[in-house]
Design goal:
The complex is a heterodimer of chains A (480) and B (607).
Chain A (H helix, E strand, L loop, with lengths): L15 H22 L13 H21 L2 H25 L1 E3 L2 E8 L2 E3 L1 H17 L9 H20 L3 H5 L4 H7 L5 H18 L2 H20 L2 H26 L5 H23 L3 H25 L3 H11 L10 H11 L12 H4 L11 H34 L3 H25 L17 H26 L1
Antiparallel strand pairs in A: 1-2, 2-3
Helix pairs in contact in A: 1-2, 1-16, 2-18, 3-4, 3-5, 4-5, 4-17, 4-18, 7-17, 8-12, 9-11, 9-12, 10-11, 11-12, 14-16, 16-17, 16-18, 17-18
Chain B lengths: L4 H26 L2 H10 E6 L6 E2 L5 E13 L9 H8 L3 H14 L5 E7 L1 H9 L5 E10 L6 H4 L2 E3 L2 H6 L8 E3 L2 H5 L1 H4 L4 E7 L5 E4 L15 E3 L3 H10 L5 E7 L4 E8 L12 H9 L9 H4 L9 H11 L13 E2 L5 E2 L9 H7 L2 H12 L7 H14 L21 H7 L23 H12 L3 E2 L5 E4 L13 E2 L7 H13 L16 E7 L7 E8 L6 E7 L5 H18 L5 H9 L5 H8 L1
Parallel strand pairs in B: 2-10
Antiparallel strand pairs in B: 1-8, 2-3, 3-4, 3-5, 6-7, 8-9, 10-16, 11-12, 11-20, 13-14, 15-17, 18-19, 19-20
Helix pairs in contact in B: 10-20, 13-15, 14-19
Classes of the chains: A mainly alpha (480), B alpha+beta (607).
Chain lengths: 480, 607
């Protein structure tokens, strides 16, 4: 469209806004690591072997890698996708056998005593490439069930290995592909059910079984009515169900003279009532009612099993982390310690914060894991609401920018990849910051570019720069 | 679908980040508890104890000093392996005791500094500093020390503040010391000083990392203000020596100012016994002593005034006009009216001054009867009201409002009391023993000394007090500078002073033993009957006769006649105070060797 040639890779083709946001996050992130690790000796004792020094070295390595990424042809990534994926899975399996254990997770591979890598961080990148490659096939259709199963296998293998490495938090990040799948036209009900079941999970932990059951019945009935109408019948149905429960309750109370579980009666009544529901669906020829029946059955099995799983299968420390967020009865000196100290650090920051290196929670190590998972506490305490908002906004801009890059892509490969990266960044940011401010259970995943750790810093940067490279490439083509 | 999915996703992402920002806004801008919690985490307030104010005697000699001591503290976490034996030999404690204390501290808290040993002397602290014991450190405190070991009850003692003090005044924290009795209690606010505070920042392990805000909010401890009291330490020490083995009290006042020159209650205690680590042993022993060394008899004991009170009745008679100095009354070894009052053998009849000199009982029975039956008041009861008012104007029956806390009211009977006791039917004969200071009268030695000062001043007194100067103030309370006149005109005092002079200097005087040539001592003996045993010996005197410098009241419990035990002590004190030396060593020996039995107290001891 302009007179510029195809071969000239020029600066205007690169998304400088994204680069600036990235650099801003990297610089702010480094200063916060410095604040979190530094001792009272001050700047004079600058040491390259300390964490901020190490991070600086990793940043140097990353910049070299970034230059290489930007210089490679974008077709390379398309070609490289499957081999990379298999190498990634291979290394993950290797770690499972010969890895090093840190904080209970066998997720590390030791290259030298001072240098360990976490292959799981890079597996997100290779998986994103493989998924993009698979979904950019000409014959691919998101509505095809068999294609979806294949896709699930590609996306599922790395997190399963990671779970086996006992790093459940990192595995959870793979649910972020849902964001990209939705964009690519996945049935809209999938994310809705996903969130519904997440909500049901927490509700089942907090609320009584009877309350949960009533909520499930109401949700299914209202959902079905929204789709199909016939509100009058639904009200009659609910009234009949309630009446039947009450009558049976009284009869059974009179007969046994003892205690009768309302929950069991209502459960049995509602299951029996499904016969009437099926007859209703058959007569009205409403096929989607069967979906709600299935949903109901899954829910009433899911809800009690949550309690069972929660009490018997979930590890005690993970149970504590969930309880800390949803319950009030928590010992802030024991299981609630991290949660509480993190809130104190951020809450005491006030509007403008206590100032660089002035945070008392940060400088005197009240928050555990502060340079890694809880790095956002430093931002909150030393830079206050102002600084926190700026950082959160920068992340938001970066993610929106990545989504915009995806929209700019011509072929699905780039779009799928960019949306995958956006999803991964979104998941990490929302969960990590969410846990430091006490709205999400403690899940040990890093905050991109902020948390100390070479592997994650390099991996996030690679994710970002490959997206940037694909974006630049597409824009070049558009100019021809 | 109308809305493109990319837009739905954008809205979703923005919504999630908006929730995060709203939550941050709530945490950082609205909820204030976290700021407080952060301070609780990091700030440690280290109290700096001020040294307590010292106390000087009237001549500038130390009677209470502050001695620096150190509490040995330990933080279990920081303790490295150390030579327990060496530590024990430095502090002089058995190794088992130290081990027990260290174990106890470890169980209590791993990270907090805790007291291992209290009140170590400075020498020990220096030795501890020479060697290094990681995890151990010392904390400064001040204790009392008493160079002369005198005036225990007057000065009072300090002890750990009890729960009531902690609740009443936020100044005190658990483990702080507070004045419990005497001057230490009365002047607590002045002596204690102001605490300072040093705000430190600690890390998550409780290790101090530096001062908060470069010490901007730290305050220095302000030492307690010193006090000069009115006591003459030399005289006080001498009085305590003389009272050794006896139960009783002596109070001496400078009449021209109301300053208390000495105040001793016997038995007393060595004030150093109430200091330091021995207190726990000493206090129960002293407190259970049946002779009650903690009972400050000089102000708390209430005795009958005895014959000394005749002076008061004489003065009232003169003022009321029912008595003239030249009036003579007969005494045939007693007063015959009513149930009668016995008297000793002396010349008869006597005029007023000689009646004082010889302490004639009958004479003052006539005087009191005339006061009560004065026609102008209509009835004996109305006359009694007038008499009561006079007596109270001498400072009896109420607290004198002195500056130390244990004062008692004493007792002056009222018309209502007799109406109650005698169901309304009583007359002058019923209360006739008041004339010689017996019956329903109760006075404290301080009130008696004040009477002595009033007579010395010929009609007025200054409120007796023990503090002469508070070192950061120009003057003490205004009430101590104000003369208090009795209801008796000063012109009537001279015959009484003459009588008191004669009691010491003339034949048939009851207190000739007190005479010191050239000092012009004026005195009046008393023999107070009491229900506990032998009579109390009391003596009241001042000297010299003109421009008196010292007025004294002495009580020796169960010391029999005023002349036998109380008068010699008073005489020696006057001589010592006025001349600075003792010319009668044999009298000192006599007083010291005096044997007085205290069956009342000692019966309790054997119980």
């Amino acid at each position: 469209m302009t007179g510029r040639g195809l071969n000239r890779i020029q600066s205007p083709t690169i998304d400088w806004v994204a680069i600036l946001v990235y650099l801003a996050l990297v610089v702010i992130g480094w200063f916060n690591i410095f604040a979190a690790v530094h001792d009272d000796a001050g700047l004079s004792s600058f040491s390259i072997s300390s964490r901020y020094g190490m991070q600086l070295i990793w940043m140097g390595i990353t910049m070299c890698v970034a230059v290489v990424i930007m210089l490679l042809d974008e077709r390379f990534y398309h070609m490289f996708a499957y081999p990379a994926y298999f190498i990634g899975v291979g290394v993950l399996l290797l770690v499972l056998i010969a890895g090093k254990e840190v904080n209970g997770a066998k997720a590390w591979i030791e290259i030298s005593p001072s240098l360990s890598l976490q292959p799981g961080e890079f597996a997100k990148f290779t998986t994103a490439l493989a998924v993009a490659r698979y979904m950019s096939r000409y014959s691919f259709s998101i509505t095809d069930f068999r294609e979806l199963v294949s896709l699930a296998v590609i996306m599922g293998i790395p997190p399963i290995i990671i779970v086996l490495q006992k790093d459940a938090g990192s595995a959870l990040v793979y649910t972020s592909f849902l964001l990209m799948l939705y964009r690519e036209g996945l049935n809209g009900w999938v994310p809705v059910f996903f969130f519904a079941f997440v909500a049901l999970f927490f509700t089942s932990i907090v609320m009584e079984p009877l309350t949960v059951l009533i909520l499930i019945i109401l949700a299914c009935v209202i959902g079905e009515s929204v789709r199909n109408g016939f509100w009058k019948q639904k009200i009659i149905y609910l009234a009949a169900l309630a009446l039947a429960t009450i009558i049976i309750y009284f009869i059974l109370s009179l007969i046994t003279g003892g205690q009768v579980s309302v929950y069991l009666i209502l459960l049995i009544c509602s299951i029996l009532s499904l016969v009437a529901v099926v007859v209703y669906a058959y007569r009205k020829r409403l096929r989607n009612v069967y979906m709600f029946v299935a949903l109901f059955l899954v829910s009433i099995i899911f809800a009690p099993s949550v309690d069972y799983v929660f009490d018997n299968i979930v590890q005690p420390h993970q149970r504590d982390r969930i309880l800390v967020v949803v319950s009030d009865e928590v010992d802030l000196k024991k299981e609630g310690y991290n949660y509480n100290q993190s809130l104190i650090a951020i809450g005491s920051g006030g509007f403008a914060g206590k100032g660089f290196l002035q945070g008392t929670q940060t400088q005197f190590n009240f928050v555990p894991e502060q340079s890694t998972d809880f790095i956002f506490c430093t931002v909150g305490e030393e830079w206050g609401f102002l600084g926190s908002t700026i950082v959160v906004s920068l992340f938001c801009i970066l993610i929106l920018r990545l989504m915009k890059m995806g929209e700019r892509q011509r072929d699905p490969f780039g779009r799928v990849y960019c949306y995958s990266v956006a999803g991964i960044f979104f998941m990490h940011t929302a969960i990590n910051i969410g846990m430091t401010i006490g709205i999400v259970p403690v899940i040990g995943i890093p905050l991109p570019f902020f948390s100390y750790g070479g592997s994650s810093f390099l991996a996030f940067s690679i994710l970002f720069f490959v997206a940037l490279r694909l974006d630049a490439g597409k824009r070049e083509l558009m100019r021809t | 679908m109308k809305v493109p999915r990319s837009v739905v996703l954008q809205i979703f992402v923005i919504a999630v980040f908006a929730i995060i920002i709203v939550r941050l806004f709530y945490l950082q801008m609205i909820d204030n508890t976290y700021k407080q919690n952060a301070n609780n985490n990091v700030l440690r307030y280290e109290v700096q104890n001020p040294p307590r104010g010292e106390i000087f005697d009237r001549n500038g000699e130390y009677i209470v000093q502050s001695k620096e001591v150190y509490d040995l503290m330990m933080i279990p976490k920081d303790v490295k392996e150390f030579d327990t034996l060496l530590l024990c030999s430095i502090v002089g404690e058995p190794i088992e005791d130290i081990r027990i204390k260290i174990d106890k501290a470890k169980r209590h808290s791993w990270r907090q500094g805790q007291v291992i040993l209290e009140q170590l002397p400075k020498e020990v602290k220096i030795k501890l500093d020479e060697r290094s014991f990681p995890g151990f450190y010392t904390v400064y405190r001040t204790l009392r020390s008493y160079p002369r070991k005198i005036a225990g009850n007057l000065l009072g003692y300090i002890g750990k503040a009890d729960q009531r003090a902690l609740d009443r005044d936020p100044y005190y924290k658990s483990g702080d010391y507070i004045g419990k009795t005497g001057i230490e209690l009365a002047f607590e606010d002045i002596l204690r000083g102001d605490k300072g505070v040093k705000i430190n920042m600690v890390d998550v392990h409780g290790v101090v990392k530096g001062s908060y805000a470069n010490g901007m909010y730290d305050t220095l401890a302000k030492p307690g203000t010193a006090i000069t009291c009115t006591i003459d330490a030399e005289l006080q020490a001498f009085a305590e020596e003389l009272f050794e083995g006896k139960v009783g009290s002596i109070v001496a006042i400078e009449p021209s100012t109301g300053e208390i020159l000495l105040s001793h209650s016997s038995p007393s205690y060595d004030p150093d016994e109430m200091v330091g680590r021995e207190v726990n042993k000493n206090f129960p022993r002293l407190n259970s002593d049946p002779r009650k060394p903690f009972f400050n008899r000089a102000v708390m004991s209430v005795y009958p005034p005895g014959s000394v009170f005749k002076i008061v009745n004489g003065l009232i008679g003169l003022e009321e006009g029912v008595l003239k100095p030249e009036y003579k009354y007969p005494c045939a070894r007693g007063y015959t009216g009513g149930r009668g009052v016995a008297c000793h053998n002396h010349t008869s009849p006597l005029n007023l001054t000689d009646a004082i000199k010889s302490s004639c009982n009958a004479y003052f029975c006539y005087v009191l009867k005339n006061v009560l039956e004065n026609r102008k008041y209509g009835s004996v009861k109305d006359g009694f009201d007038v008499w009561e008012k006079y007596v109270r104007s001498f400072g009896f029956g109420r607290k004198l409002d002195s500056d130390f806390p244990e004062e008692r009211n004493g007792m002056v009977p009222t018309r209502e009391l007799y109406d109650k006791n005698y169901r309304g039917s009583w007359n002058a004969f019923t209360v006739i023993s008041l004339s010689i200071g017996q019956g329903e009268l109760g006075v404290s030695p301080l009130q008696m000394a004040n009477l002595s000062a009033t007579i010395a001043n010929r009609g007025y007194y200054y409120i007796p007090h023990v503090v002469k100067k508070i070192h950061d103030r120009d003057s003490i309370d205004a009430r101590f500078y104000e003369p208090h006149y009795t209801m008796v005109d000063p012109k009537h005092f001279e015959p009484m002073v003459e009588g008191m002079w004669r009691a010491v200097h003339r034949p048939e005087g009851t207190a000739q033993i007190a005479e010191v040539p050239g000092l012009d001592i004026c005195g009046k003996t008393g023999t107070a009957q009491n229900p506990h045993g032998a009579d109390h010996s009391t003596f009241l005197c001042f000297a010299p006769r003109d421009n008196p410098k010292i007025a004294i009241s002495v009580y020796v419990e169960h010391g029999r006649w005023g002349g036998t035990s109380a008068a010699p002590i008073a005489s020696l004190i006057v001589e010592k105070y006025l001349t600075g030396k003792i010319s009668r060593p044999e009298l000192v020996e006599y007083v010291k060797n005096m044997q007085i039995a205290y069956p009342y107290y000692d019966r309790q001891r054997t119980k």
